[in-house]
Amino acid sequence: MSDAQRLGLIGYFTLAMQQRLAKDASLCPTVDQEIALGGMSARAWENYQKVAQVSQNLGVDLPEEMKQYMGLTVQLEERLRPTDWYERLVKSYVTIGAMSDFNRSLTAGLSSPAQAELSEVSWDCGQEAWAAPVITQACATQVTVPARLSLWGRRVLGDVRSTFRQAIVGYPELTAEDGEDIPEAIKEHHRARMERTGLKA
Q1: What pLDDT, on a 0 to 100 scale, did the predictor assign at position 78?
Q2: Which phi and psi (to 5°) does residue 105 adopt?
Q3: CA atoms of 58 and 54, how far apart (whole Å)
Q4: Which residues form the Ferritin-like domain (predicted)?
Q5: Which helix (H) or strand (E) holds 126?
Q6: What is the pTM assigned to this prediction?
Q7: What single string gives the DSSP state of each residue in 25-90?
Q8: What share of the chain is helix, strand, coil (3-state, %, to 5)?
Q9: What whole-number distance in Å separates Cα of residue 92 and Cα of residue 162?
Q10: Which structural domains are found in the chain, ordered by start?
């Protein structure tokens, strides 16, 4: 897989994370949360600009490389519609976490100059650290929440995995050892994130 192809995927998922954070900021229930998520969305846009700059330095037309993936996350949005704020938060927690892991795995395969410039990027922009205690508190105060959000989180990951599988068709080096799924490390990190909030993966 070439640097251009990797950067196309990284750019696409970085932009998808920025859009998800911006949407959450517009729908959250408190001003403090809106400010926090708005800041994360801005940092995600800075991440995209960083990817664009690295691409330009390598002579890569980033928008052109991203074109083939257009619509993947639109399908993800349409298949899973949250019914309340906590479902929206868990959806972003799972989705952004997995996309961040995927971007890190893609970055590790870049050539040295590009890898060095992107290896320290905080792809999730602090969303995981911010969202985890909010989800944990919700689980602690409402007895029906943990089971409901655990089931929801599993549904979200299933759709995220489907999205990744569509994105990496033709790139066997990006799949798990069985050649049919996302790398095991991404699934392991998802389980750890869920356990951190008291949810079951």
Answers
A1: 82
A2: -70, -35
A3: 6
A4: 6-162
A5: none
A6: 0.89
A7: HHH-SSHHHHHHHHHHHHHHHHHHHHHHHHHHHTT--HHHHHGGGTTHHHHHHHH---SSHHHHHH
A8: 75, 0, 25
A9: 16
A10: 3-197 (1.20.1260.10)
